[in-house]
Design a protein that fits this description.
The protein is built from 13 helices and 15 strands. With about 450 residues, the protein is an alpha/beta fold.
């Protein structure tokens, strides 16, 4: 759609119904983020059925004026770092920014542009000044590397996960069920991805996930979720002499979203330096509803999260990806995200520059029947997070967010989460990213 809209000469209104059944809200935010990057003016509107006064008045305003604006008073620019109170967190973020610019990092990109996400492609001219460089890789090379992984190596990954307690929901029908053969292919991809990352000295890796690869091998989900976790099946170099990335997460940016790549790389370095679990993941902003007086978002990634987000492998499971999306199958790494404190963020392109929105949220524990209702209203095979944003309403978030994805990372408590947010803000700013605080944070 972007190709036609980018040259469209009239006003543009992007509309989605407020429903989790199909990811229309995800599509609205993806298109909005892409038009933001392209510099194409647009307006957005959402409603459950477009009979409410808010939506009708919004539509009338757009029809009368060609423009519709929403409340974004929850967003404010980060003050200059020099004006912030000195703290170990700002010093850490600033020092890590200097280190990245000097020592540089490489992200491995397995084919850009997944599912039309123009907003997820970051030009080298924006990345390189921060010390981040791309190694452009082909998914066909990943498939070729998979063929070199022995069956014994792939079976070893399965045995490790069985021992760790990951539950596999398997059957025998290749067309509709998750099979052992599909899983072995996914484990071969996990081994292959780590070996290729080692070959190129990668600090993060992104697999396109759907287009092309889905017609060649089972889904990449399991590999992605395993890579993001510190505790994961060990993989050795081809000659067996070394363990690859031992006791460390290798950040994976799902769907080759390079905004997630920048964010995950920075988060990994800060959380590791703070002695925290650096497991991070993106989520789709899928949907949400009120529950007992609070608006609780349904955040879902289309396949896998690091197991630590669910509370470990024993609280995680693997189900077959829906055949509509993945004809060759493959398992997810699913679960219900554990309750706790998180920092959420998004790096995006606006006015030709890198920006980052940062905020705080609490992951809440909903009753099992409510979780099941929300899963059944979206995609029950996928991981789910019940999130309550701090100081940001539903409509404020939708009006501001410039992507279909947001990044999340856990902290052990609210105080530590606030410190982590401050360190992230300082590192973003130290790299030249324009930082915006959203809602209630430790910085006001």
């Amino acid at each position: 759609m972007l190709a036609g809209l980018r040259s469209h000469r009239g006003p543009i209104l992007v509309v989605a119904n407020w429903s989790g059944e199909f990811p229309g809200l995800v599509g609205l935010l993806n298109l909005a983020g892409s038009m933001t990057k392209a510099g194409t003016p647009y307006s957005v509107l959402w409603s459950e059925d477009f009979t409410d006064d808010w939506a009708l008045q919004g539509l009338k305003t757009w029809l009368d004026t060609g423009r519709l604006t929403h409340d974004t008073s929850h967003v404010r620019d980060l003050p200059a770092l020099t004006s912030l109170p000195a703290s170990p967190e700002t010093e850490l973020g600033t020092a890590l920014a200097r280190q990245l610019v000097t020592e540089k990092a490489v992200i491995g990109v397995f084919d850009e542009g997944c599912t039309g996400m123009y907003n997820a492609i970051f030009d080298d001219e924006l990345l390189n000044p921060m010390g981040i460089y791309k190694e452009r890789l082909s998914q066909s090379a990943l498939v070729a590397e998979m063929s070199r992984v022995t069956e014994e190596e792939a079976a070893g990954v399965r045995a490790w996960l069985d021992a760790a307690g990951l539950a596999f929901h398997t059957g025998t029908d290749e067309a509709t069920e998750l099979t052992d053969a599909q899983l072995l292919s996914q484990f071969a991809m996990y081994v292959a991805a780590l070996r290729m990352a080692d070959d190129f000295g990668l600090d993060a890796v992104g697999i396109q996930y759907q287009q092309g690869l889905k017609d060649t091998v089972p889904a990449s989900d399991l590999a992605e979720g395993l890579l993001d976790n510190v505790e994961r099946p060990p993989v050795r170099s081809r000659d067996g002499s070394r363990e690859l990335y031992p006791e460390a997460a290798l950040p994976h940016f799902n769907e080759v979203d390079e905004g997630v790549a920048v964010d995950s790389l920075i988060t990994n370095r800060i959380w590791t330096a703070m002695g925290l679990d650096p497991a991070t993941t993106l989520h789709d902003i899928r949907w949400g509803e009120e529950y007992e007086g609070r608006f609780v978002w349904v955040m879902e990634i289309s396949g896998s999260v690091p197991a630590s987000h669910n509370g470990g492998y024993g609280r995680s499971w693997s189900m077959r990806q829906p055949p509509m999306f993945f004809p060759l199958g493959g398992g997810t790494l699913s679960g219900v995200s554990k309750p706790g404190e998180i920092v959420w963020s998004r790096v995006f392109i606006m006015d030709g520059e890198l920006h980052a929105d940062l905020g705080r949220a609490t992951v809440v524990d909903l009753p099992e029947e409510e979780t099941r209702r929300r899963l059944d209203a979206t995609t029950p095979q996928w991981p789910i997070m019940h999130a309550v944003l701090h100081g940001v309403t539903r409509d404020q978030f939708m009006a501001r967010h410039r992507a279909n994805h947001l990044n999340v990372v856990y902290a052990p408590d609210a105080e530590t989460a606030d410190k982590g947010l401050l360190a992230k803000a300082a590192m973003f700013a130290g790299l030249g990213i324009k930082v915006h605080l959203c809602g209630d944070t430790a910085l006001g």
